[in-house]
User: Which sequence fits this backbone?
């Protein structure tokens, strides 16, 4: 498939900023990544080469097709787990951005059987039940836990289904969104929700948001998504 028109410069700029925000806010470190679907060709997406998110510059952004293959590698090494992104984009045309992370407060909810549920209004996107991807179901009992091929990526995308967020047992999580700003918001507030939920469970019985509250809160927050984005950007400038 041909390269076609160049993506909007603002899209690539926002992708670079997203990587730095997620690092600054403790969602990714030397591992974890964010991608965005191409604004001109929905069969392609943009994703960093295999480096830490906190060090990304525009020159480190590569273009991939939905088979997970780089369009113009130019000697740059791609991330092994690019199939997380390619297969979600393949299955979900509504998804325009994807974050995969190993944020620490989230991981226990993928291994304990305690559901991750929205405990406050800023995490309404979690809905009533957060799906869990069990890699053993797709890859057997002896994987290295990484989504390293299209088959495992497709299994993860199927487990995610129509949700905004999914846990990956023993590995981390994946968030999806209609924009880069929305997916960054979701990745950050999923980590915040997990931390608050763990604290609340220590105190006693928890009253979670019901389905209507979660949906209404999500709609309200999506209308002001630029507010936290600009705050997170400002923190980068103060480093």
Assistant:
């Amino acid at each position: 498939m041909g390269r076609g028109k160049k993506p909007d410069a603002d899209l690539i700029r926002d992708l670079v900023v997203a990587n730095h925000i997620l690092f600054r806010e403790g969602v990714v470190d030397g591992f974890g990544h964010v991608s965005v679907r191409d604004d001109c060709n929905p069969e392609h997406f943009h994703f960093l080469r295999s480096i830490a998110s906190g060090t990304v510059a525009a020159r480190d952004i590569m273009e991939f097709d939905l088979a997970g293959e780089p369009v113009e590698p130019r000697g740059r090494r791609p991330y092994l787990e690019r199939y997380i992104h390619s297969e979600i984009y393949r299955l979900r045309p509504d998804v325009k951005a994807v974050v995969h992370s190993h944020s620490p407060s989230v991981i226990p909810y993928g291994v304990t059987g305690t559901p991750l549920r929205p405990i406050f209004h800023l995490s309404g996107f979690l809905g009533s039940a957060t799906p869990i991807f069990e890699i053993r179901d797709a890859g057997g009992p002896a994987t290295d836990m990484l989504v390293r091929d299209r088959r495992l990526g497709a299994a993860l995308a199927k487990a995610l289904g129509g949700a905004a967020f999914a846990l990956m047992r023993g590995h981390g999580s994946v968030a999806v969104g209609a924009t880069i700003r929305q997916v960054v918001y979701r990745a950050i507030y999923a980590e915040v929700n997990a931390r608050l939920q763990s604290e609340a469970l220590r105190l006693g019985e928890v009253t979670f948001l019901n389905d209507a509250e979660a949906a209404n809160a999500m709609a309200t927050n999506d209308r002001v998504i630029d507010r936290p984005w600009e705050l997170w950007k400002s923190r980068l400038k103060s480093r």
Observations:
- The mean pLDDT is 95.
- The longest helix spans residues 180-203.
- The two ends are 41 Å apart (CA to CA).
- The longest strand covers residues 172-177.
